[in-house]
Amino acid sequence: MKQQNTKNVAFIDGQNLHLGTKTASPSWRINLYKFRVYLKEKYKAEKVYYFLGVVDENYNKLYDEIQSAGFVLFFRKHNSNMLGEKKGNIDVDLVFTVMEKMYRGEIKDKIILVSGDGDYKILVDFLIKENKFEKILFPNFKKASSLYKKMTAKYFADLSNIDLVKKISDKKKKRP
């Protein structure tokens, strides 16, 4: 049983979360407020970092919603001359932030990762070895990287599980 004072930290690949729920069958939209409560209650996530690609003023309402729900928002940094040409790939930023926070002693307990991207497998393996890993939450288990197939169920959960979708989904129309 977990101690009452556990303070895990979660890191979300926002694009992977969005695409994972959008490509699920049937597709669904996550309710950020319900999801934040779920992360706190189920995984004792005291702080949750939500990583997104390039800042686009057309999505200011989404950014406000993410922050209002209690997530700490991170954006990928780009050279301003390249903004229209670059993909908002945040993988390295997320991994670096995890490692930096661990190095500085800001993460006392364990890490939760929300993504199905295989690029994080080396981080997950390291965190498991260091006893700093709680779970990886796959937005869409069927689309998760095959690199995770040998991982024991102790270290992953499927957000696209029908019972969980009912608990953390948003009944509103999907955002663009």
Structure described in brief:
The protein is built from 6 helices and 6 strands, in the order E-H-H-E-H-E-H-E-H-E-E-H. The chain has 176 residues and is of the alpha/beta class.
Detailed description of the structure:
The chain is globular, with a radius of gyration of 16 Å. It has one domain (9-168): Rossmann fold. It is 34% helix and 18% strand. The chain has a six-stranded parallel beta sheet with strand order 3-2-1-4-5-6, with helices on both faces. Residues 82-86 have low confidence and may be disordered. It has helices at residues 14-22, 32-43, 60-68, 91-103, 121-129, 162-168, and strands at residues 8-13, 45-52, 72-75, 111-114, 133-138, 156-158. It has six helices and six strands; from the N terminus they run βααβαβαβαββα. The longest helix has 13 residues, at 91-103.
Features:
Rossmann fold
Number of helices: 6
Taking the sheet with the most strands, its summary is:
6 strands, parallel
Order of helices and strands: EHHEHEHEHEEH
- Strand arrangement in the largest pleated sheet: 3-2-1-4-5-6
Uncertain residue ranges: 82-86
The amount of beta strand, in percent, is 15-25%
Amino- and carboxy-terminal Cα gap: 41 Å
Number of spatially distinct domains? 1
CATH class: Alpha Beta
Category from helices, strands and their pairing? alpha/beta
Give the topology.
Layout: E1 8-13, H1 14-22, H2 32-43, E2 45-52, H3 60-68, E3 72-75, H4 91-103, E4 111-114, H5 121-129, E5 133-138, E6 156-158, H6 162-168
Parallel strand pairs: 1-2, 1-4, 2-3, 4-5, 5-6
